[in-house]
Amino acid sequence: MAVALAAVAATTRSILLRDVDQRVSRLLTQETGEFTNFVDQGVDPRTGTRFTDPARLLEVFLERQYADPDEELIGLVGREGQGPAQFTQRRELSVRHPLRDDGRARREIFAAEGSTGTLKRASGEVRWAKVEVARHGDEPDAAFVVAFHPAAEQAKADDVFRILLLISGVALLLTTGVALPVAGRILKPVRLVRAAAAQLTEQDLTRRIPVRGHDDIAALAETFNGMLDRLERAFAAQREFVDDAGHELRTPITIVRGHLELMGDDPAEREETIRLVTDELDRMSRIVEDLLLLAKAERPDFIAPEPVQLAELTADVFVKARTLGERDWQLAEVADREAVLDPQRITQAMVQLAQNAVQHTTHGQRIRVGSRDTATGTELYVADSGPGVQEQDAEVIFERFRRGTARRGARTSGAGLGLAIVRAIAEGHHGRVCLRPTEGGGATFVLVLEDQQP
User: What is the H or E stretch that residue 25 is in?
Assistant: First the structure.
């Protein structure tokens, strides 16, 4: 702002000085033009005829003129062996060192070849123009000179320049006094963002920036808070993954190490040990795959939706589920419509629900698979005729490594990640998985999916 104000003041001074130069040029042109017309058309009032004496011509012309305060009108007549004699207006001048009192300057102007020029003097600059008078016989050389002293006009421009600088300085101080607190208030959210970023650690991602208003700073704070939310979820998922993996993998590793340490030379014992170790390694492999799948559920590309025929998808799930065990498999109903979803992930979830139903039923018990339309979307379900789920376990069973306080079937070797995977797939489709009562006993797990645009 200081540079801009100084530039404005300097530009204003330049414009004023240019105006002074233009006004002086017009004045010099006007005065010389008037004298030229007088030479061509003027007559001597004494004789009534044209002027023949240059001195008389200059004297009469100067008597009829009235110059500006900073202007001098001078008539010069050359003399043999001495400087030019002069005819001037006898009036008070506002300049300290007029040209009529400076013989050296007059001689320099009189002898100059050009008709206009600028004379640099220690006492001040002089802008001048002259008109030479034609000679008649042995008459001496003569010239009419218009001299202007621009110092006063230039001083006015300098005064305006100083006043503008003073006003600009006061305006700069006032603006700074107002801008500092205003800028402080505007930039306060930015400082909060910086402070929050400096205080963030892997152990504490709970800090948020208060959002006030609807301007760009508020949008920045909202964006930063959203970034912190994503970071917190990512770190939480990472910690949960590490904790879950460490918890679940520690047991099979301990079992494998214990059996290998106690393994003897007996072939039967070695065979049994190898079988147990292999079984535990398979279980570890399944746990790792399930944990990796749950970790991928946080990524935006976890779900790849596309238009799918529900009838065909339900039939494919039913065919795959029938190979999971000797049960009374029934295709209960089929939704005959098109939906936008990820067929691979939905198939994975439905097969997991079917596997869960197999684990909690016995040979010959009924398991129904189906899909149906709803007012807002689609439901796909697996219903079994097993012992059902205790009420206190209805929400717990969807958490990682939780099987509920009451087991509803035979002992299994699962890690408790199956239903957590199903919930992750449902939430990836912006839906949910729920447990509903089953007529005649058992459990019905339902994927509730809302319609999406392709």
Answer: helix 2-41
